[in-house]
Amino acid sequence: MHFLEFEKPIAELESKIDELRHLSDGGDINIADEVRKLQDKVDKLLRSTYAKLTPAQKVQVARHPNRPHCLDYIGALITDFTPLAGDRLFAEDRAIVGGLGRFRGRSVVVIGQERGHDTESRVRHNFGMAKPEGYRKAQRLMQLADRFHLPVVTLVDTAGAFPGVSAEERGQAEAIAKSIETCLRVKVPIVAAVIGEGGSGGAIAIAAADRVLMLEHAIYSVISPEGCASILWRSAANAADAAQALRLTAQDLKELGVIDRIVMEPVGGAHRRREDTINALGNALEDALDGLRGQDGGSLRHGRRQKFLEIGQKGLG
Questions:
Q1: Which of 107, 184, 280, 307 has its CA 20 to 30 A from that of 48?
Q2: How far apart are CA 17 and CA 98, in angstroms?
Q3: What is the pTM of this model?
């Protein structure tokens, strides 16, 4: 288990539990009882710690390397998944995965950002940072869904779009803008879920949806805390202050009307009980799709556009 900086007291207790489990009972000490007592302490400490996470700590949880990623959700929730590659213009971009499949009995188009779990897969998927061809592939898949009247499910998990010169040369900004436009134009239901880090235009490009879900400890922001701090304070050392000011947590965004539902994570974060987290998100996605079932395409498109036009209007006027 990879422990985060603020989890050090928990790590120490779990280390003691591991040591005790390698011992045998002797004398007046009952190893099983001692392990049980320590485990109770760990559980209480996890609950108390995760009940009062700061925005900066939530950023750490959202970026946890053992957190379930896009392909984990697809593997567990989507049957008969058929990946589709390429943007039909330039190349395949593995930072964005997508294709056709069945989600709990209904045919869907799935699009998501994959970060990778180890060095090899992270490099292969470019750490989840898509290039223009990735967003053009997303557009192609949404248009395919529109043509065949299939709902779209998107899984958002990116630090942002790839910022390299090559991406700019191929029209990164235009590709993101067109992807947002495609989200707002299609006449089929779109449900987006922020499963980890929702960064900048790289996230909104596939998250302009009828329903936007967000895991409890995920983050969603126009810029990373480090990037914001480097602009405002000329130092990434103020990232914690930036995280506080950006209001990037699920709780803040629900209050602001940016997202529609918070999906609760197991105590200790999604990385501790991955299967439970995946099932909880699956249930939330099913509820959202059921709520959109039967609406005609024109109403869906109008409601989606109005939803995003109204964001930020609270408290004005």
A1: 280
A2: 42
A3: 0.92
